[in-house]
Amino acid sequence: MAETKPKPKLNKKAVEMAKQEPKARAKNFSEVALGYPEEDAQEEASRCLQCPKPQCVSGCPVEVPIPAFIKCIREKKYAEGIATIKSKNALPAVCGRVCPQEEQCQKKCVIGKMGEPVSIGRLERFLADWERKNGSQLPPKAPPTGKKVAIVGAGPAGLTAAADLVKLGHQVTMFEALHVAGGVLMYGIPEFRLPKAIVQNEVDYVKSLGVDLRLGNLVGRIHTIPELMKEGGYEAVFIGSGAGLPQFTGSPGENLGGIYSANEFLIRVNLMKAFQFPDSDTPIRIGKHVVVIGGGNVAMDCARSSMRLGSDVCLLYRRSRDELPARQEEIENAEEEGLVCKFLASPLEFYGDEKGWVKAMKCIAMELCEPDAKGRRGVKKIPGSEFTMDVDTVIIAIGQTPNPIIQRTTGGLQSDPRHGTICVDDVGKTSLDGVYAGGDVATGAATVISAMGAGKRAAKAMHEYLTNKK
Question: How does residue 7 score in pLDDT terms, banded at 50, 70 and 90?
């Protein structure tokens, strides 16, 4: 009787990814996470159980066939693996770096019930980085349909919709207001989390599929959506213009010099490369003592960028550490780099010097209340708990809303008067025939991958609309 070989023991712990040491990385803008070498990718891929009914796929907003591409890594079929990912996801190098996998695909990984889930995001990044070094292959495209489609905004939602629609045979033109494509990937996420050369590589891939990219083209100002459809001959339009309008606290003194919105601060640092001044054209004035107001990923990006510019940084958040909405990985990285946090506190007023620059801020202590219907704990002020902090620079990172220019110049386009978002159904259809929207312009500020998922759903609906249109 043949001897039965024992099954290999399952490694319950994920393979760690190397990263820069905290003291070194806090002084530079180079990428913090260094990626898996081939041996580590092989070891981590071997942990995947290749489930016959993979729950991880159901947790992915763009439905990447996760076990299939991990199997390719195990078999060293890297070209096949990246092609498998790109059958669903046009931006794998981005998603492998900034997608919150711990709350999506990895959260549903079966191994996560016994130990640490498979590091799906790190394996996706491995294949994307391998492709960048070894060259990419273009996927097959459907025959031309003769249908013209306009994409407004070249951020994650727009790039995803454009890639899917052009592969289906449609003639796709993408209109981007800025001088570079990528949206929040370029202006919002710092170099140390997402190098801009990698974003540009992903944009170039979408262009190589046949998408016509037109930069410096602000829809709503240069031409409106009705004009695109009537005079430009576009039979369908997707609006993925993001949420670039900053929100403020409304506290007295908020217009003082040295108080930035997160949008302005990050655009100067990332898009205009102020961290390289004077080699770059754009400077940024930042003091020694910086306070960042907020607790999300944007707040962490502002805080970590400020530290790299030489400042001592305090994060002011009105709830406790347990309620911080930022990714756990980003919180831990920031704290390792020296971020000081002051929880359960909120600003009341800003004070300036004789030249109109902020020098101090008055705050008040907060306490947590009972959770609401969504489980989110409210806060209330504690009377008599006011205190003052000396500051040189304040960065307000409490959220963004969509720029209203498209809504104001597109008659009949229904939007939410409270949040400024465009109203859409489950597939991204707006109140106008042939017009779809998705991403932050429809939901308010959210994650990159959720915007990509919206772009993908809208592209599918737009294809059906164009195919059935008489």
Answer: low
**Beta-strand relationship, 148-152 and 236-239:** parallel
Domain boundaries, the chain: 22-134, 148-244+401-468, 248-398
Alpha carbon distance 206, 272 (integer Å): 23
Pick the CATH number of 22-134 from 3.30.565.10, 1.10.1060.10, 3.40.190.10, 2.60.40.10: 1.10.1060.10
Strand pairing category for 358-371 and 387-390: antiparallel
Query: Residues 314, 317, 320, CA angle at the centre, nearest 5°?
Result: 115
> CA 73, CA 18: separation in Å to the nearest integer?
19
Amino acid at 53: K
3-state secondary structure at position 417: coil
Do 248-398 and 148-244+401-468 have the same topology in CATH? yes
Give 374-403 pLDDT, tens digit per residue: 778 889 999 999 999 999 999 999 999 999
CA distance 338 to 26: 8
Bridge partners for 101 per DSSP: none
338 close to 311: Cβ distance less than 8 angstroms: no
CA dist 464 → 71, 349, 439 (Å): 33, 53, 20
Residue 62 is given by DSSP the state T
Query: Could you tell me whether strands 259-261 and 393-396 are parallel, antiparallel, or unpaired per DSSP bridges?
Result: parallel
What is the mean pLDDT of the segment spanning 26-35? 96
pTM of the model: 0.94
Q: Cα–chain-centroid distance for residue 31?
A: 16
- HSE at residue 356, side-chain half, CA atoms within 13 A, is 3
Q: At what angle do helices 120-134 and 38-45 cross, to 10 degrees?
A: 140
Choices 3.40.50.12780, 3.50.50.60, 2.60.34.10, 1.10.3720.10: CATH for 248-398:
3.50.50.60
| Residue 1 clears pLDDT 50, i.e. is over it | no
pLDDT of 23 reads 94
Listed in sequence order, the residues at least 6 apart from 37 whose beta carbon sits closer than 8 Å to its beta carbon are none
Q: Does 258 have pLDDT greater than 50?
A: yes
